Amino acid sequence: MTPVELSRTVLHAVRCAVDEGQLSVAVPERVVVGEPGAGGCGEYATNVALQLARAAGKPPRAVAEILRPRLIAADGIEDVVVTGPGFLNFRLGREADPLQDLVREIRGQGRRYGHGDALAGQVLALRVPYEVRAEVVADAVVRIVASQGGRATVEHRGGRATVQHQDGRATVEHRGGRATARRHGGRAAVEHGELVDLRPVPAPEDPAPLGPDAARWALLHPAPHDRPRITADHLVQREGNPLFRVRYAHARVRSLGRGAARLGFAAEPGPLNTAEADTAVTPARRASALQAPALHTPLSDYPRILTAAATHRAPDRLARHLVTVADAVLPFLTCVLPIGEEKPSAAHRARLALAEAAGTVLAGGLSLLGIDAPEHL
User: Fold this and answer.
1) Which has fewest Cβ within 10 Å: 73, 100, 135, 276?
2) How far apart are CA 28 and CA 10, in angstroms?
3) Own/partner pairs for 163-170, CB < 8 Å, 24+ apart?
4) 266 pLDDT exceeds 90?
């Protein structure tokens, strides 16, 4: 129930009390509903009983008690509590809200959102050539397969590769013999497993001058059959660079969290009230708020994309999906924090929670690709 709908419900209760002779007042044209003040409770409150008391010839609390049973009986209201001199405080019934439930799920699981057991018990031996793109793709596949409960090692024809993960990154050592993968301080030596050939189109040149993050993105973002571009475009901070959009979106979300803390509020999943809760917003901010539902599909699709990337040994699917998430969240971010005379509200807390959920997905996905998710950019 939105504030506008709640206001109409209160007006209807007043009208019914007047029609039944319990109140003798003129029904007001509108009722103001806002957040509870000091000593209040629930999601919303109104002072309508105080406004009607003089005309009704009754104490405000008596007016509130007349309205209370009618309001409790209304759809969408779970409870009504009278506080102070006669304020009506509303606790709303929780309606099914897939986006709100999704935000709660992502917040509960953190960066492990999307991890599962689709490959539980499976052991893969990834056979790759001695080539930088193949090494980087294999390293990402090891991480992504592990996110789905499987295990993967990296083998080279006539040699041995040990993949060591430290602080989310990986280095590859070559030796003679079989393959061993060292992950997160543990060791998993694989004698037998499904043999998978990974032979992506080789990099045309050494990507190292791009730096670790841009180099990995340049090698992982294209499909394996596409030739990667090793160019300075991956370093340019502008919208045309997909890596920049993904990392910038994450950094912006983190910045909004810091801004909210300075304003004295934190993220809390709840109704977004995208248009109705804002009584004095610009058309641009209203349009930004209405972008919220567009985030549901890319966020809810993330576990499926992660499973597909693991099953098909295709980290490029994950990379491209992160671009989709970033492109969906960036237009929404301008409505998260209050501006001007706006006060932090439940809607702002809910929007921040949604933005942070998108940031969690971006950070988790980048981590699986071995790429840093910056706090500042």
Assistant:
1) 73
2) 10
3) 163/138, 163/139, 168/367, 168/370, 168/372, 169/212, 169/370, 170/139, 170/142, 170/370
4) yes
Distance of CA 138 to the CA centre of its chain: 28
- The CA angle 348-350-356, to the nearest 5 degrees, is 100
Token reading at 315 = 């980290």
The pLDDT, as a whole number, for residue 306 is 97
Measured CA to CA, the distance from residue 141 to residue 153 in angstroms comes to: 9
Q: How far does Cα 102 stand from its chain's mean position?
A: 8
Asked whether residue 375 carries a pLDDT value surpassing 70, the answer given is yes
Look at residues 178, 130, 87, 106 and name the one whose alpha carbon lies nearest to residue 355: 106
Task: Give the position of tokens 């959009």.
Answer: 245
Neighbours of 184 (CB within 10 A): 9
Q: How confident is the model at residue 284, as a pLDDT?
A: 65
Helix axes 315-329, 346-368, angle to 10 degrees: 160
Among candidate residues 91, 84, 116, the one with its CA nearest the CA of residue 41: 91
State the amino acid at position 55 in one-letter form. A
